[in-house]
Amino acid sequence: MTTPLLIDTHVHLYRSSAAAAEDKESYVIWEYGEGGAPLYSQSLGSPEELARSMEASGVSRVVVLNLFIAEWEVSRFERSLPSDMAPTERKQLVADFRRKLPETLRDFNLWGCEVAKRYPAITPFVSVDLNVAGAAESTAMVRNLVENHGARGLKLHSAIHRHSMDDERLWPLFDLCREYGLPVLGHAGRDPANAGFAEPKAFAPVLEAFPELQLIVAHMGGGAWQQTAELAERYPNAWFDCAEIIEWTAASEAPSDFELAALIRQVGVHRVLLGSDYPWYDLDRTIERVNALPLLSDEERELILGRNALRLLDGSDA
After folding, report:
1. Hey, is 63 helix, strand or coil?
2. What are phi and psi of 240, to 5 degrees?
3. What's the pLDDT tens digit per position in 70-88?
4. Is residue 255 a contact partner of residue 223, using CB atoms and an 8 Å limit?
5. C-alpha–C-alpha distance, residues 187 and 161, integer Å
6. Domain 7-67+100-314 falls in which CATH fold?
7. How far apart are CA 201 and CA 72, in angstroms?
């Protein structure tokens, strides 16, 4: 048997090890319920670490999803201020920092695109945050990143950004991605307020309004995975990735290995993508988990491990 093509479509990078450590510590994964035995990565998500992980695991290409969360940036800035600073001065500095968030977001996206230029095996997806910049400003930013800096897709995390995936303020961005033939990857799962911001059913209006858009429902729906099969049946333009959920199959509200494999076959193996969610989980570990799932044939595993991603990203089955 030949070595399969390996493409990881769900990876994150960090500009500093301190920021990575803080985010990994503060991002509590709760939606899969009790139990589970996830094997977390020790990596801190630098480009150099990712390159080494790719070489060790045999992954030839990754999609790096820039994820910008304004409140995390503000909290990080506040913690950097001296503890004995006068309250009025602290308040003013934080307000000044907040005013500069649109520029900080743009610079973070530019950094991701520049990393991709240094590492050709990286395909960069950029991020928006409607709490930082509105629809018009965000769309103009993404257009510039696509036309001038090599951005190849869009990453959304509506659960953290506290608006629904079908928020019509995102419509101009979806139209832009449709125009350029760029995929959109949206975090999918439950949110702490149980508002349904990122549940699979929230993707339905987008898929209905933009049938030509290549929309990736991340985590196979996450903690709301039981909605995924119905969404897939109704919308053939929906794609899915197995990031994170594949590490939680022993948890009380997650699918078992058998249920996850059955779900993959139900939605259609031809539109399920390998995703590690690095640096939370390791590339090679996620590949092992895909290969350990029951029900799937070797050919179906090869589709998930890389051939589907090649078709999505390049329009090629080679």
Report:
1. strand
2. -145, 150
3. 988 999 999 999 999 999 9
4. no
5. 11
6. TIM Barrel (3.20.20)
7. 27
